[in-house]
């Protein structure tokens, strides 16, 4: 019986991995840098949030990039996996709220009493940050807004608050 030599490609664990190609991950994905003692088999997922959803619903990968809010909601709903605090993307979400100039909305507090569209699910990171900015920096009462979702949640078990509803019909947010 043949036995693989130590550190040969046959002896290292192969981990099914998904992440976008960018700064911190590009060298791993193109093979310029390789981890010691294991091999990463990268799967390309054109829309990365779809990989987040597959990871939290199916544990589809051994290693997956993931938004911190998706991870926290998944953990709160009993999904058993571990996160490594390596932040691959950092961005400000202050520009995430877009307003139609014809709407009559002139300041953030004007959103109270209105329906506001949310791209994808209620727990998607950009929406969480945008709501925090509205509440903390502008004093908006988030419970006085009806949040209308254009998609479903990554974590299927999550149930949004009473003032959150799915978008009806085929009309999009754009």
Order of strands, widest sheet: 2-1-3
Total DSSP helices? 4
Q: Spell the H/E element sequence.
A: EHEHEHEHEE
Number of domains: 2
Strand residue percentage: 5-15%
Instruction: State the end-to-end distance.
Output: 62 Å
Major sheet details:
3 strands, parallel
Rg, nearest Å: 20 Å
Structural class: alpha/beta
What helical percentage do the residues reach? Answer: 10-25%
Q: Total strand count, please?
A: 6
Shape category: elongated
Q: Which regions have little confidence, pLDDT < 50, spanning 5+ residues?
A: none
What number is the mean pLDDT? 88
Fold and architecture overview:
With 174 residues, this protein is an alpha/beta fold. It has 2 domains: 14-76, no CATH class; 101-166, no CATH class. 24% of the residues lie in helices and 13% in strands. The protein is built from 4 helices and 6 strands. It has helices spanning 23-29, 48-58, 68-76, 125-138, and strands at residues 14-18, 39-42, 63-64, 115-118, 146-149, 164-166. The strands form 2 sheets. Strands 2-1-3 form a 3-stranded parallel sheet. It has a 3-stranded parallel sheet with strand order 4-5-6, with no helix packed on it. It is elongated and about 65 Å long. The N and C termini lie far apart (62 Å). 20% of the residues are buried.
């Amino acid at each position: 019986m043949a036995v693989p030599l130590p550190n040969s490609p046959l002896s290292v664990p192969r981990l099914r991995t998904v992440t976008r190609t960018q700064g911190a991950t590009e060298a791993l994905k193109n093979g310029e840098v390789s981890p010691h003692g294991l091999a990463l088999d990268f799967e390309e997922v054109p829309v990365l949030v779809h990989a987040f959803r597959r990871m939290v619903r199916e544990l589809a990968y051994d290693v997956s990039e993931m938004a911190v809010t998706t991870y926290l909601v998944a953990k709160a709903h009993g999904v058993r996996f571990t996160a490594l605090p390596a932040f691959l993307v950092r961005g400000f979400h202050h520009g995430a709220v877009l307003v139609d100039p014809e709407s009559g909305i002139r300041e953030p507090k004007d959103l109270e009493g209105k329906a506001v569209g949310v791209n994808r699910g209620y727990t998607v990171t950009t929406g969480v940050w945008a709501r925090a900015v509205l509440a903390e920096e502008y004093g908006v009462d988030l419970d006085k807004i009806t949040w209308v979702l254009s998609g479903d949640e990554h974590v299927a078990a999550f149930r949004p608050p009473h003032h959150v509803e799915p978008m009806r019909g085929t009309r999009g947010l754009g």
